[in-house]
Amino acid sequence: MRLKKLIMISLALMAALCATAKGDDNWTATVDQMIARGEFAQAQKFMNKLPSKLRKAEAVRIDSFNTIMQRIRKDFNMTPDQGKTLIRERMPEATDAQIANWIANRKIEVMDIDGTQWWFRKSVRNLWLLGDEFAQTNAQDDSVTCAKRRSYYLQAMRTPADANGVRDWRHVDVTFKLDVDADAVPAGETLRVWMPFPYENLRQRNIRLKGSNRPVTMSEGSKHHTVYMEAVAEAGKPTHFEYSFSYDVGERHIAQQDLIAMLEPYNTSSDLYQRYTASEPRHMIITDEMRALARRIVGDEENPVLQASKIYEWISRTYPWAGAREYSTLANIPEYVLASGHGDCGQVTLLYITLVRSLGIPARWESGWMLHPDEINWHDWAETYFEGVGWVPTDQSFGRSAVGTVMNDYYATGIDLYRMASNEAVGDVLSPPKTFIRSETVDFQPGEVEWRGGNLYYDVWHSHLEVDGITPLRNLIH
């Protein structure tokens, strides 16, 4: 049987190679499918047998595929025995049957790679967020989080709104630092580094680069707004990059009843409508299945504001937060959320955008950092377009802690001021262009680093954002 299986694999590889020789564009789809099935050895063997001329021309893409497999192995690096041990350290009574049930129901995420089962490195931590047995504890945590976020809303409502509906303007001072480990590249090699920077929109203005420890090139034309620096690596020394900037930011939300009152019919022939209701490879793909799901969620509702609200609430109720796999390893993130039953902020945001676009409601991506007191972290959200109103912020992830509360609709059509938005889209080309596959191929928050030998992954550098101050710009209403 083993010999027969090997013969079948060899025949499959030969057939794939013949197809590649006839049409070079087919080889990437073949490798994608092999990686998705966990057939890493076959994928590498297949790429090694590509014609030499094609291998040379596609060296960067081949490197990217090999890098994706390396990242999946990093994500799925826990043996079943190691995972069970970690579970029983916290829950000694857990049985093999119970653990098998968690795996079957995707509460524990596993992957077969070349015939061996591996657990996702965050799967045990995620279990306490996803398991039905722990729902009551998680609901209590959500209520505490919701109360904290309600305080931001109440604070904002003590100030008047400007002509765009923005309140509680603050001046923010930030320092961003990135350090590449000593000897991560040979001495004398040039490190290329991209780091996030805010951009002008209704809620962000007066953006200023205050200083940097190296010459800076600002991005041009990319939807990922960045500062770019270079430095020559020195033997035995880490390489430090640092810059500071400031900007003004405010809170903005529009109540659902006000949106409905201002709503006008969509201009379906406009460039904006056409662009933001269309598929956007590779993570916002409108399929017949997505259209059918969106229609099931909204039922007979035809008002775009209420349709978007139903989509928002359905995702909030259905998909709890859990630690995410590396985005670069996922072929289609919304489909991954639907299959896995959970998602982090960016994953559920992409699902929201795809579903509302499926209904003919324009939506787009926005992301950067959340700067809440004691909660500085990467974060992703969306904007939804309503004719007669314009773009309205939508924080799909924050809605999960507000389901069924007085804050239930707030983040569906609003956002607090504790944000630093630096991205207007996903997967755009960096400026200046990056040669090798990015560490994060979808989003952009911690930065990107490469040298002429390839991309540098997160394990050889680290970055962090420091809020130096958030100062009110307007007096409170008395």
What does this 3D model show about the protein?
With 478 residues, the protein is α+β, with helices and mostly antiparallel strands. Among the domains are: 56 residues, no CATH class; 99 residues. It has 15 helices and 16 strands. The longest helix has 22 residues. The N terminus is likely disordered.
List strands and helices in order, with pairings.
Layout: H1 2-22, H2 26-36, H3 40-48, H4 52-57, H5 59-75, H6 80-90, H7 96-104, E1 110-113, E2 116-119, H8 123-130, H9 135-156, E3 166-180, E4 190-196, E5 204-212, E6 217-218, E7 226-232, E8 239-253, H10 256-262, H11 271-276, H12 288-298, H13 304-318, H14 333-340, H15 345-358, E9 363-372, E10 375-386, E11 390-394, E12 414-415, E13 419-423, E14 448-451, E15 454-456, E16 461-472
Antiparallel strand pairs: 1-2, 3-8, 3-16, 4-7, 4-14, 5-8, 6-7, 8-12, 9-10, 9-13, 10-11, 14-15
Helix pairs in contact: 2-3, 12-15, 13-15, 14-15
Please outline what is shown here.
With 478 residues, the chain is α+β, with helices and mostly antiparallel strands. The protein is built from 15 helices and 16 strands. Among the domains are: 56 residues, no CATH class; 99 residues.
Distance between the termini: 82 Å
Tally of individual helices:
15
Proportion of residues in β-strands: 15-25%
Largest sheet: 5 strands, antiparallel
What overall form do the CA principal axes indicate?
Answer: globular
Runs in which pLDDT lies below 50 for 5 or more consecutive residues are 1-23
Q: Helical residue percent?
A: 25-40%
Number of strands: 16
How does the helix and strand content classify structurally?
alpha+beta
Radius of gyration: 24 Å
Q: What is the overall pLDDT average?
A: 92
